[in-house]
Amino acid sequence: MNTEIIKISATSSSDEYKKAVELLKDNQVVGMPTETVYGLAGNAYSEEAVKRIFEAKGRPQDNPLIVHISEFSEIYDLVSEVPEIAKKLAEKFWPGPLTMILPKSEKVPSCVTAGLPSVAVRCPSHPVAQNLIKYCGLPIAAPSANISGKPSPTKAEHVFSDLNGKIPLVIDGGESEEGVESTVISLCGETPKLLRPGNVTLTELESVCGKVLVDDAVLNPLKDGEKVSSPGMKYKHYSPNAVVTILKGDYKSFCDYVNKNKTSDTYAMVFDGEGNDLDVEFITYGNKNDYRSLSNHLFDCLRELDSLGAKECFVRCPEETTDDLAVLNRLLRAAAFKVIDLNKVLLGLTGKTGAGKSTVSRYLKDKGAYIIDGDIVAREILVDNPVLLDTLAENFGEDILENGVLNRKKLAEKAFSTPENTALLNSIMHPAINDKIQSEANEAFKTHNVVIVDAAAIIESGYADTCDKLIVVTAPEEIRKERIMKRDRISEIDALIRINGQKNDEFYEEKADYIIKNYEPFLLENELAELIKNIF
After folding, report:
1. Which residues of 77-104 are buried (b: 16+ CB within 10 A; e: fewer)?
2. Residue 259, Cβ density class (10 Å: 0-12 exposed, 13-18 middle, ≥19 buried)
3. Cis peptide upstream of residue 521 (ω within 30 degrees of 0)
4. Hey, how many other C-beta atoms are within 10 angstroms of the C-beta on 350?
5. DSSP string spanning 198-245?
6. Which of 98, 181, 233, 449 is the most exposed place for a label (fewest CB within 10 A)?
7. Could you count the other beta carbons within 10 Å of the beta carbon of residue 142?
8. Which residues have CB under 8 Å from 419's CB, separation 6+?
9. Residue 451: helix, strand or coil by DSSP?
10. Quick check: 116 and 39 in contact, CB under 8 A?
C-alpha cells in the first residue's frame, strides 16, 4: 500500500476532502489532524474500520477509542443519557481538547469501547477535523495516529513516518496546537473523575463540576489486572526508543547526576535556558513555568530523541501541580515510571565484621536518617518465609535448627568456615533480603529524605549498585577481633573464623564513596563531617 499525503487547510473546498471522505465511507482509515495530536480516523459504526485502526497501530484491543463528532447534537446517537454536567462542560470546552466518558448507546460497537459499557466522546476544534466529520456524516473513532506505545504525532510527517504503507492517506492540516492528547473525564459515577489530564486542566474542570476526583492511574501505573477505562492509561506509553529516566530535583543536582552517569549515547531533556552545564547533548522542551509550552513541545522532543539515535535520556521533571499534570502524566508513561528523586538519598553502609557499623548507624539515625538493619531484615525473612529456613537446613545441616528455630551461632560457624560456604549462604539469602530491603526503603522515603541500609554483605548481594553512595566503616583486625569476642561472647578462634570468611580490605575500600575510620585516635564526628555536609 502506498501512503499519500494531501494538504488541506481551513479554507479548503469540500472537493479537497473528497478522497478522504470516500475512504472513510469505504471503512478505510485516514490520518487526520486535530488540535491535540493527529488521529487515525475510521468510521465509529464500522467494526471493519475499527479493526483496521487496531491493526495499523498495533494497538491492544483492550484499549478503548475516542469517538469524534462535529457538534454537540451528534452526541445523542452515541450515548444513552446526557447529564446536565455534560452539557455544561460542552458549553465551556467544546469544541476543544476535552473528552467525556458517558454510558454508550447500542449503536456503538463494543470493539470501539473495548467491551466497556461507556464510550469516550469529544468534539475537536481543528477546522479540518470538523469539516471531515461533517462531510462524512459519520462519527469518527480516532486514537493517536502512531505505532502503539510510541510518542503521539503532532505533525503529518510523524504519521507518515510511523504508518507509511499501513494506511492509504494522511491529511496534512499543519502542526497540532495543543501538543498532547485531550483531557478525559468520566461522568459515569456520582462524582466526575479525571482519567487522563490534558490542556483542559483540573482547575478548569472544577470550575464547572465542583469536586472532581483524580484517578490514581494519572500519576501511577495501573494495578495488576486493572482494566483500562481510558486511552493513555497503559503502564508504558508515548515512549521513544531511548530508555527514559525522570530526575526530580534542582538543576545543579540534575547536571551532577547526568554528568556522572552518562554514556556515549546519553541525551538530556531540560527546560528553556538550561543545558550549558551538561557534558552531554541536550534538547529543551519548554518553559518550566508554562505548562502549555511544555505540552506543546513534549512529543516533538521525544520523537527527536529517536532521530538523534539516543539510547538513554534523562529528563528534567516538571512540578507536580494541577496545571502540569498532563506533561508529568505523559513523561511518567514514556519512562515506564522510572523516576529518581535527587532530593532523596539511599546510602549503603557496610564494612568488615567488628568494624563498628552499628555505632555509625546510631550516629546517622540521630541526624535524621532512616536505618534499615540488614540483620533484622534477614531474621524477619526467616520467620516470614519458612521455605528459606528449610533451604538453609538442607545445605548446612538439620542441626542449625532447634525445635524449628534457627540457631544463628551454629549457622555462622558453618557458613563462615570457608569462602565457598559463605558464598552459598549469600546465594540463598540475598535475593529475598534485597527485595524486602527495597520494599522497606520505598516506604521509608515517604517520610525521610535519607535512607541508610546497614548490611554486612551489601556489596556481595549486589544491592550496593542500587545505592546512591556507599559508606565503608573500617578498623584494624586486632580491634575488630576484640569487639567481636565481646559482642558475641565467642572465642578468639571463632572470631578469627568470621573475620577470615570475609573479603580483604581492598574489596570494600575500592567501592567506597566514604571511608570511615571507627577506632582511636580518630573521632567519629570528624570522620563523618564530610558525609553530613554533603548528604544531610
Report:
1. ebbeebeeebeebbeebbbbbbbbbbbb
2. middle
3. yes
4. 26
5. -SS-HHHHHHHHSS-EE-GGGSSPPPTTPPP-STT-SSS-S--SSEEE
6. 449
7. 28
8. 501
9. strand
10. no
Q: Which amino acid is at 412?
A: A
294 residue type, one letter? L
Q: Specify the pLDDT at position 232.
A: 58
Q: How far apart are CA 244 and CA 268, in angstroms?
A: 9
* Residue where the block lists cell 479537497: 16
Number of H helices, E strands in the chain: 20, 23
User: H helices within 235-356, ranges in order?
Assistant: 251-261, 291-308, 325-334
| 204-217 pLDDT tens trace | 999 999 999 999 88
CA atoms within 13 A on the CB side of 4: 8
Q: What is the mean pLDDT of residues 114-128?
A: 96
pLDDT at residue 226 greater than cutoff 80: no
Task: Give pTM, 2 decimals.
Answer: 0.72
174: left (phi over 0), alpha (psi -120 to 50) or beta: left
Residue the block writes with cell 556507599: 470
**Which cell numbers hold the place of 81?**
443519557
What pLDDT does residue 517 have? Answer: 97
Angstrom CA distances, 274 to 29, 32, 40, stand at 42, 35, 36
End-to-end CA distance of the chain: give it in Å, rounded: 62
The upper half-sphere exposure of residue 479, i.e. CA atoms within 13 Å in the direction of its Cβ, equals 12
Name the residue with cell 492511574. 217
